[in-house]
Amino acid sequence: MVDLVSQYEKIKPAIDSAILDVIQNAQFINGPEVTALKEELEQYLGVKHVIPCANGTDALQIAMMALDLKPGDEVITPSFTYIATTEVIALLGLKPVFVEVNKDTFCVNAEAIEKAITPKTKAIVPVHLYGQAADMNAIMEIAKKQNLFVIEDNAQAIGSDYHLTDGSVVKTGTIGDIGCTSFFPSKNLGCYGDGGAIFTNNDELAEKLRMIANHGQSKKYYHDVVGCNSRLDNIQAAVLRIKLRQLDNYIDSRRNVADYYDGFFGPMKGVQIPFRSHDSKHVFHQYTLILDGHNRDGLSEYLASKDIPSMIYYPVPAHRQKMFASFGSADTNLPTTDWLTERVISLPIHTEMQEEQLERITNSVAEFIG
Predict the structure, then answer these.
(1) What torsion, rounded to 10 degrees, do the Cα atoms 238, 239, 242, 248 define?
(2) What is the DSSP letter of 167?
(3) What are the counts of helices (DSSP H) followed by strands (DSSP E) for the chain?
(4) Per-residue pLDDT for 330 more than 90?
(5) For 163-216, how does the pLDDT look when each residue is reduced to its tens digit (9 = 90+)?
(6) Are 140 and 166 in contact (CB under 8 A)?
(7) CATH homologous superfamily, domain 247-369
(8) For residue 73, is pLDDT > 90?
(9) 176 touches 151 (CB < 8 A)
């Protein structure tokens, strides 16, 4: 699904030198590379504050801790997402309220959010799934009207441009109160281990986020709030700094692959190619088809028999996971989510793909579908 070895070969001298510098300087935690990455991400994203942390799940947890949400408070989020988005809600004693997604974008449905709001609702967590931005204009309007926090899960869409209603263009992850991302190796901007970051334009929130990520410290050995230990190490920051310089090129490469796939699959009956919103730039963390009237699982097995990878993101939606049984979520009626989980399939997409690979993948899909 991702060829990190070939990607590494193209930037090998810079990566090797940067990692060796960190080792020779022996500054492994909160060193100069982390500080430099923070500043470079702030410039790239056009956001006032970036707080690096240990991983994307921690980023979401720290964000919710910083907003002083209390046990029993409700947080609205899509069920059609990776489990990290939703598990931190339950981990903090909050109540996840699962709502429907749009069939075309795979992202949370703004109307469904509005209908799910109760006096206990305190926050919305939209997910920019597969690299496509959620309808942030509508979501921010709802949040403003209802006085709710917005935490963007931007783990799959870093680098995506979004057009606001006032005509300005901003990066996803910088629109809500807080944005969160993951630097897991397979992400569009990925390190060589675990890593994450939190974004905000709010000075007060930024200070609190920094403290929570570092044991609640305002200064060493003085702990103002209950926090955690979530730090990005210097080696991962060094890798990310080099890859950040390539991120726009990586996005362009992924979009070129998506264009090839679109041209091949677009005319096929019963195959729906990814929707591209006019409001945002799809950065194609995944290239996901919807198969209607075709055997999705059979196609996955057929591709595997030809040594072609594919993935199903996600076979079991959050509201049907056992971990949320105590919330009675299994009874939640989300027909679009259930429909998608039975029909989506993601094909390989990465920065190093060659046309002969694309031909082999597309022709194999066509052989099975007929």
Answers:
(1) -130
(2) S
(3) 12, 14
(4) no
(5) 999 999 999 999 999 999 999 999 999 999 999 999 999 999 999 999 999 999
(6) no
(7) Aspartate Aminotransferase, domain 1 (3.90.1150.10)
(8) yes
(9) yes
Distances (CA, A) of 107 to 100, 146, 154, 355: 8, 21, 12, 30
Residues in the chain: 370
Q: What is the DSSP pairing of strand 161-163 with strand 169-171?
A: antiparallel
Report CA Rg, the chain: 21
The domain over range 4-244 is classified in CATH as 3.40.640.10: yes
Q: Tell me how far CA of residue 28 lies from CA of 22, 24, 25, in angstroms.
A: 7, 10, 8
Evaluate whether 340 touches 106 at the Cβ level (below 8 Å).
yes
Residue pair 135/154 in contact by the 8 Å Cβ criterion? no
CA distance 184 to 190: 5
Strand segments (E) across the chain: 49-53, 74-78, 95-99, 121-124, 149-153, 161-163, 169-171, 178-182, 196-200, 217-219, 222-223, 271-272, 287-291, 344-347
Which whole number is the average pLDDT over 79-85? Answer: 96
Instruction: Tell me how far the alpha carbon of residue 121 is from its chain's centroid.
Output: 23
The CA-to-CA distance between both ends of the chain, in Å, stands at: 24
Copy the structure tokens of residue 116.
């799910």
Domain ranges of the chain: 4-244, 247-369
Helix, strand, or coil (residue 233): strand
Q: What is the pLDDT of residue 370?
A: 78
* Sequence-distant (≥ 6) Cβ neighbours of residue 356 within 8 angstroms: none
One-letter amino acid of 26:
A
CB atoms within 10 A of CB 3: 15
* Token pair listed for 93: 């004693």
Query: Which residues 6+ apart lie within 8 Å of 242 measured at CB?
Result: 11, 14, 15, 18
141's CB contacts (< 8 A; 6+ apart) are none
Q: What is the DSSP letter of 66?
A: H
**C-beta atoms surrounding 220 within 10 Å:** 8
Q: Report pLDDT for 205.
A: 98
